[in-house]
Each structure stands twice: as C-alpha cells, then as structure tokens.
Write a structure and sequence with these properties.
By secondary structure, this protein is α/β, with parallel strands linked by helices. It is built from 22 helices and 18 strands.
C-alpha cells in the first residue's frame, strides 16, 4: 500500500475563497443575510440527503451507476422540501468545462490508518443539486475511474474523506447519507466506528444501494488495519469477512440502516444462490431491510423529440421520421440501404453477463435464416470484440461492429434501429432497454432483473406490450423470439402499434422518487 502524503499541484479550477476555511465562508454569508431571511430559512427545515458515489453524470461516467446518481439526485431536488447534494472524487478525467465551474471551499487532512492525506474540497451547482468534489492528486489524477492495483486504498480514502468533509461543511449535515456500490459501501462502518459520538454525525442515517452485486470490492484482510483502522472484530461472518478476505459490499449490507437495489425482481433474485454472488444467505437474512426500487432515465437527455445528437428529431406523433434516422445510420455504419430490412442492434459491454455467449452460438444461423441487419457498439472481452470484427468482415453490408464507445453514436443507433437485443444472464436494472423504448427501438430481452420489470411481452391479439422476451438462458429460445419479432415487423400496422406502446412507456426517475422519499422519511421520522 502506498504511504505517501501528498498535496495538489496546479489546478485549472477557479478558487473563489482559497484563503478561508468553510466555517469562515459560512459566517461571512450569514452576516450578509437580512434578519428576516435568516428566520425564514430556519423556520422551514428541509430533509438533507447526501449521495456518496464514485461517479455521476454529467461529470464522470463509466456505466449505469453514474446515470442513476445523476438522474435521481436531479429528480429528487425538484421537491422543494429536500436539500440534495452529491459528493464525488475529483478525477482528472472531469472535463475542463466542468472544472471551470468549481469553487474551492478549503482543505482538510484525512486519517487513513497511520497516514494523514490531503483533501481539497470543491463545489458547484448543477440542476438544483450541490456537487462536492474531493481532491487528492495522488489517488485521482489518473486516467479513468477504476482498474488500479490500489483501488482498495483509493476508495478507502474517499470513504473516510466523505465523512471528514461533512464534519467541515458548516451549513450542511445530512439526515440521510446514501452510499452506492462497493466504492462507498464502507462508509456506514466508518460512521459507526469513528463518528458515533460526533455531535454532528451521530444522528445520520445510512442507505446503501446495490447497483451490481457482482462487483463487491474484495480485498485482503490486512486492509482492515492498514487502511481502515479497524481491528479483528470486523473480521467475522456478520461484519466484513468474505472467505479469507474482506468485502466492502458486505460491510454496506451489514451496517447500513436500509438497503436498496435497482429493481424489484433483482431484489428477489439476489436472495438465491445463482444471482447472489456468495451473499445470497446474508441478503435473505436482511430481506426486511432490502427494497427494490426501479431505476429510471432522464427524458430531458434521452428523448428523440429533443435529442440534438440524432439525425432527425421525432416523437410518438411523428414516428415516420424514425425512417430518416435508419437510412442515415445505415449509411454511416456502411450497411446496405434497405428501409424495410429490420435492423437489430446491441449497445453493451462485451462481457458474458450481457448474454454474448448466446449471441455467439446463433449469430450465423440468425443471419442465414433471417432477413436482418445487425449493429453492435461497445468494448470489453477481446474474444467478443474479435468475434464481431470477424462477422462484420464476413458479412459486409449486413453487420456493423463499432468496437468503441460513443454516447453520440449510441443515441444514433437507438434512433435508427428497429430492435434492441439484451439477452443478459443477469441484469440488476438495465438502462439501455429504457432508452430503446423511448426511441421506439423495440427491446428483445431475457426475463431477468429490471428487464422483467420494464419490458412487457407483446400480445398481437390484444395489441398490448412494449417488447419481446424469453425466459430461459438458451440460445435457441432467443433465436426463436428474434424470428417472431421479425415476423411481426413485416406487419407494418402492427409494428407501428408496438412502437407507440414502447414510446409511451414512462420510466422517468420521477416515478421512483416517491419510493425513495418514503424510505428517507421512514428513517428520519
């Protein structure tokens, strides 16, 4: 483990109060307020929610976690009775246009076992939410967010820094500290162990959200003492012990006041061995504190009626314009120009979890027995990357493989494709199918996790449902449902109806906010 205490070097952010502590800043602000305004502010207390996360849109995003934290905090902040804030690491990959908005609040030192590490505190406002950024260049001045040998140390530092920063924010003490995934799962443990008697923090309640149970933050037992200053009392089955190591995820489950995950079906699935990643017994034991709350998406970002990145805007009333997007997409991807040939797409990490082994098993049979085009966008396992490159070379004009990631191209694919394939082995919630629905790109999914909660199988007799689904993790079953979808596609009037059903589906995060509010209120009543 690194033992260096570091300070930051040159920064591109604007320092508005570089020589004042946070307490001095607050005192100066209060001195400027009219007396009546101060009384009015104090007369209407708001519930204060602090999200601690390793990523959040629009600042830094590697996956669904960022979309959820960014969209949920924004949606919750629309309720005037809530003061919503988010705390993130200040990564070097945060773009200059965001860094220029940051204000420097001050700096503190964070105890990390025998070390005292520098932490600069910055903030900005975005969509009604206050974002805090914790700066230590030794830990976060690196490309990307994860994947380093010392990730355990980096996020142990960040978790302790969150609590130390809250102690130094004079105008904000959260009623609820909402942590997310393994990177911040250790916070409830540290809160109880080191801040239980702290006058400011002893009443703070904690919520821990599992976004993907597969990634648990498992580290050697020595991490307890060397990074967290915890003794062997935390190396037990009912604390953090995970086989011969420790699990940050297990700590969050055991020590949080409430546990949530990102869909109702996934909340049930993870209590069973197949989905539970070794924690199914613990989660079944904690089921009274475990709630599944479905994720949503931000329709101000993901909607074909307002999206500046697609070729031609359209809505449920102008669905014919989707054909323009399809034509332009075929042209950009080098596919043959066939307006009536269904285009099936995938936008995904190229990993087994996403059902890529099923796709590999039936890909050539699908192309040889079905009139269909296929486009994929994503990166991941080199074997799957090479597979799609091979098929794009073997079937030019019918298969496109974009082995990269581009959010702009992703939205063009949603807008230009007819169908969206998502045959996941497991899927805690999934956001791609929600985006596809809004763009009238009809999902074909396996019935698991959030896919089962959001995609309703189309009934051609009642003309209900917004997609197609299959139950078993079986390549033949998947191929059959793709063929069925293609047969429905040939019936243009029926296909327009399923597109209308899909585009009218409402999975805005506003639908989930009421469930989170109910949870927060139950903790802080």
């Amino acid at each position: 483990m690194a033992a260096t205490t570091t300070t930051t070097t040159k920064r591109t952010v604007k320092r508005t109060t570089a020589k004042k502590s946070p307490i001095e800043i607050l005192a100066a602000e209060k001195a400027k307020r009219p007396e009546g305004e101060e009384r009015e502010i104090e007369a209407v207390p708001k519930r204060k929610i602090l999200f601690a996360a390793s990523e959040a849109t629009p600042f830094i995003a590697t996956g669904g976690l960022a979309e959820v934290v960014g969209s949920l905090s924004k949606a919750l902040a629309k309720d005037p009775s809530y003061d919503v804030r988010v705390v993130l690491p200040l990564y070097s990959d945060i773009r200059p246009e965001h860094r220029r908005k940051l204000s420097f609040l001050g700096n503190i030192f964070v105890p990390l076992s025998w070390r005292n590490q520098y932490c600069g505190i910055f903030s900005c406002e975005q969509d009604g939410v206050t974002f805090y950024f914790l700066d230590n260049e030794y830990y976060f001045k690196r490309p990307g967010a994860y994947g380093y040998y010392d990730d355990g140390e980096r996020f142990a530092y960040f978790s302790r820094a969150v609590l130390e920063a809250v102690r130094h924010l004079p105008d904000f003490v959260p009623d609820v500290l909402h942590t997310n995934d393994w990177q911040t799962a250790i916070i409830p443990v540290l809160l109880k162990q080191f801040y239980g008697d702290d006058e400011r923090l002893r009443g703070v309640k904690t919520v821990f959200t599992i976004h993907n149970l597969k990634y648990q933050g498992v580290f050697p037992k020595t991490t307890l003492n060397e990074l967290l200053s915890l003794d062997d009392r935390y190396y037990t089955e009912d604390t953090m012990k995970f086989y011969d190591a420790i699990s940050f995820m297990k700590a969050g489950i055991n020590f949080s006041d409430a546990i949530t995950t990102v869909s109702k079906t996934y909340a049930q699935e993870i209590q069973y061995e197949f989905y539970g990643e070794g924690l199914h017994g613990l989660l079944a034991q904690k089921k009274d504190r475990l709630t599944g709350i479905l994720n949503g998406i931000d329709y101000s970002v993901y909607s074909p009626g307002v999206d500046p990145d697609i070729y031609c805007k359209y809505s449920v009333r102008t669905m014919d314009k989707k054909k323009i997007n399809k034509q332009r997409l075929q042209e950009e991807l080098g596919l043959e120009q066939h307006a009536d040939l269904p285009l099936l797409s995938m936008i995904t990490r190229l990993e087994k979890q996403k059902g890529l082994d099923l796709v590999a098993n039936i890909f050539e049979e699908m192309l040889n027995t079905t009139d269909i085009q296929f486009a994929v966008l994503g990166t991941g396992n080199p074997g799957y990357e090479d597979m799609f490159r091979y098929f794009s070379n073997k079937y030019p004009g019918r298969v496109s493989a974009s082995i990269t990631f581009s959010n702009v191209l992703a939205k063009k694919i949603y807008a230009g494709s007819d169908m969206f394939l998502m045959p996941s082995l497991f899927e805690p919630c999934g956001l791609s199918q929600l985006i596809a629905l809004k763009y009238g790109c009809i999902p074909i999914v396996r019935e698991t996790g959030g896919l089962a909660d959001t995609v309703t199988a189309f009934d051609e007799f009642r003309l209900t449902g917004n997609g197609f689904s299959f139950k078993n993790y079986n390549a033949g079953e998947m191929l059959n449902i793709i063929r069925y979808a293609v047969s429905i596609y040939q019936q243009s009037g029926v296909w327009m109806r399923i597109m209308m059903n899909a585009m009218k589906s409402n999975f805005s995060f506003q639908n989930s906010v009421s469930e989170y509010i109910e949870l927060y209120q139950s903790l802080t009543a």
